[in-house]
Design a protein that fits this description.
35% of the residues lie in helices and 23% in strands. By secondary structure, the protein is α/β, with parallel strands linked by helices. Helix 7 links the parallel strand 7 and strand 8. Helix 3 packs parallel to helix 6, helix 5 crosses helix 6 and helix 6 runs parallel beside helix 7. Bound molecules: adenosine-5'-diphosphate and magnesium ion.
């Protein structure tokens, strides 16, 4: 369980990223976080991962305080949290296999990734992870040769290979075309249901949020301003979260 109590994040330049956030995310939940650019979605994810220090309040994962964790504890926390980004963040010049195996390398010296001397177990875990996202046939392809959707699925496989308890995805479909965005969201949802990995996905598009959010959290100016189901998040709710009326850009073109 992830628990935030009165969490405020103030960046060194004085900008408030999170403003007194209280949240409880039970194990296994699939949560979609929505809000305009600058609302604090990325800050929330980086805070949970221990990348951004909190200024006030308390943040615990399974009862362990993230703020004030030692370097070693932070490494522990990060190895149990899989991260997925809008820009995929793969090492483009190397194979899908190498990229996915790197997911298992928390705390292991980087030279092994350069040598590419993987154990049978490491390879097996990589294959299984790639099977989960349906692209095992790309195992030996260079990451640079893949489409955006394929790269994002490799990134999901890489996160899975580290056997995470929590998956944090920061606008994972923002640079994908609509059908591919749906597919990647379905992958994340299926993995959440099959493996029970607590999943937090930052999204911009409200139709995707409604469709996939078992729970939708709306953020505005660093605060949680809505917390409910996708079904409850009607247009009026979204206008309230966004602080303006909705436009065509708020929905994914061609969503059924
Ligand atoms: N590294 C940073 N330094 C200073 N301010 C930041 C930093 N990152 C984000 N911010 C500010 O914090 C607020 C929340 O940003 P962010 O969490 O990136 O929102 P979102 O992901 O919803 O677009 C914004 O005002 C943004 O400008
Ligand atoms: Mg962001």
């Amino acid at each position: 369980m992830i628990r935030l109590e009165g969490v405020t994040v103030r960046y060194p330049n004085g900008v408030v990223g999170l403003d007194g956030v209280d949240l409880e995310i039970p194990d296994g939940q699939f949560v979609v976080v929505v809000g305009l650019s600058g609302a604090g979605k990325s800050t929330l994810i980086r805070t949970i991962n221990g990348l951004v220090p909190i200024t006030e309040g308390s943040l615990t994962i399974d009862g362990r305080e993230v703020a004030g964790a030692s370097k070693r504890e932070l490494r522990d926390i990060r190895s149990s949290v899989g991260m997925i980004f809008q820009s995929f963040n793969l090492v483009k010049r190397t194979s899908v296999m190498n990229n996915v195996i790197m997911g298992q390398l928390h705390g292991i010296p980087a030279y092994r990734s350069l040598v590419g001397a993987w154990t049978k177990e490491e390879k097996e875990i990589a294959f299984q992870s790639l099977e989960r996202v349906g692209i095992v046939e790309k195992t030996w392809t260079r990451a640079s040769q893949l489409s955006g959707g394929q790269q994002q699925r490799v990134a999901i496989a890489r996160a899975l290979a580290q056997d995470p308890k929590v998956m944090l995805a920061d606008e994972p479909v923002a640079s994908l075309d609509p059908p591919t965005a749906q597919m990647v969201m379905k992958d994340l949802q299926r993995i959440n249901r099959d493996l029970g990995i607590t999943t937090l996905v930052n999204l911009h598009f409200l139709d995707l949020a409604r469709k996939f959010g078992d729970r939708v959290i709306g953020m505005r100016a660093g605060k949680v301003v809505f917390d409910g189901t996708g079904a409850e998040a009607d247009d009026a709710v979204f206008e309230d979260i966004y602080g303006r009326s909705l436009t065509a850009e708020d929905t994914l073109p061609g969503t059924p």
